[in-house]
Design a protein that fits this description.
The protein is mostly helical. Helix content is 69%, strand content 2%. It has one domain.
Length: 232
Amino acid sequence: MTDLYKTIINDGLWKNNPALVQLLGLCPLLAVSNTVINGLGLGLATMLTLVASNGLVSLFRHQIPDEGRLPVFVMIIASIVTTIELLMNAWFHELFLILGIFIPLIVTNCAIIGRAEAFASRNSAGPAVLDGLMMGLGFTAILVLLGALREVIGQGTLLSQAHLMFGDGARDLTIVVIEQYRGFLIALLPPGAFIGLGLIVALKNSIDAKQLSRAATVRSDLTDTTVTTSNP
């Protein structure tokens, strides 16, 4: 695996995660992430859009004039989102109704047009598609994590309404985490989403700070060892 691919994977999943670092696409992230299934559904739709739009923008980057690149990017993204919307309406109709306006609003997600402009339009198809996949996975992971946090605190379950995505056979997948739980409504409302996302961002920042501190300690130890060795 080349250094470029390693950087793309690390950026998408952690270092430059669109939900935790770039803080883009927060409207749908906060609005529908009240359960794992809702978050997973919107996350997968966003990831598919990122992969397809990055790939197409990269393939046609030499044919798109600089003066009209943003309108062309929006047209490409809108076409992809419309296709995904129709497929979801046909195959996941109940989930489509729950997600509602937030599926077509993927077109306006700044993370998608940002990756098309900043990366896909300047790189070949392979890295561009991988970038879309990793950014989409990073975004989906945060949607699912936030959805799980809010669902457990809000209604004491995990994977409720799993049949909306996986069919009637998945009705038994629901996990009751807290028996006879009366619920905590604020976790399911937008304020709960802001609080939950803030906690996740704080956790990431704390992990990054500890990693930097550990790396600085290692460098300091190596420097001391080198000085000691050179001056016996």
